[in-house]
Amino acid sequence: MSLRAVVIGASAGGVQALSQVLPDLPAGFRVPVMVVVHIPPHKENALVDLFARKCHLQVKEAEDKEPLAPGTIYFAPPDYHLLVEAGETLALSSDETVNHSRPAIDVLFETAADAFGSGLAGVVLTGANQDGAKGLKAVCEAGGVGLVQDSATAEVATMPDAARIACPGARTMYLDEIAPALQAMTR
Predict the structure, then answer these.
(1) Which end of the chain has a smaller Cβ tally under 10 Å, C or N?
(2) 152 Cβ neighbours under 8 A, 6+ residues apart
(3) In this structure, how many other beta carbons lie within 10 angstroms of the beta carbon of residue 41?
(4) Is 161 a catalytic residue?
């Protein structure tokens, strides 16, 4: 597999889980990483500042019509779906909520699967709803790789469990195994 992009989805407990995954990506990780975390719509997005201090890669909030850059972590802004368009460009949408969420993990994963096919890795972390399950299934059906946080280590196991049921071929991993696995896919 030649990894071209990574998508990560998290909800309840996601900041702690991401704090064990994203800082472990080394400075030489030359693949764009797009992240959806369920955050309340009218809150300022503190995730960018928080992770910019912890990570070796550039961290920013995704912007509409922005071309993806290698070695950059993009967070979906509050109250916008994050999508990947043809040509590996990001798009933002204020369409209806999906799984009661905007941004929704499924929206990012499904559009990224269309754009990157077998070059995509999808990662579903802790969370309290089904968001990410359909998206991870789309990633796997497009030939990409699915990684799911081990439910026993998730703050809320609903999301990883739903993703594993939707995508039985996904690999179950402890948080400290995810970044090394992604890095191995770039070699």
Answers:
(1) C
(2) none
(3) 13
(4) no
In angstroms, how far apart are the furthest CA atoms of the chain? 40
The list of the chain residues with pLDDT below 70 reads: 1
- 87 vs 84: CA distance, rounded Å: 8
Number of other residues whose CB lies within 10 A of the CB of residue 118 = 14
Q: What share of the chain is helix, strand, coil (3-state, %, to 5)?
A: 35, 25, 40
Residue of 38, 81, 101, 106 marked catalytic: 38
* CA neighbor of 64 nearest in space, from 47, 56, 76: 76
Residue from 11, 24, 81, 106 carrying the catalytic annotation? 11
38 is catalytic: yes
* Confidence (pLDDT) at 69: 97
Spatial contact of 177 and 25, defined as CB atoms under 8 Å apart: no
What domains can be seen in the chain, in order of their start residue?
Answer: 5-185 (3.40.50.180)
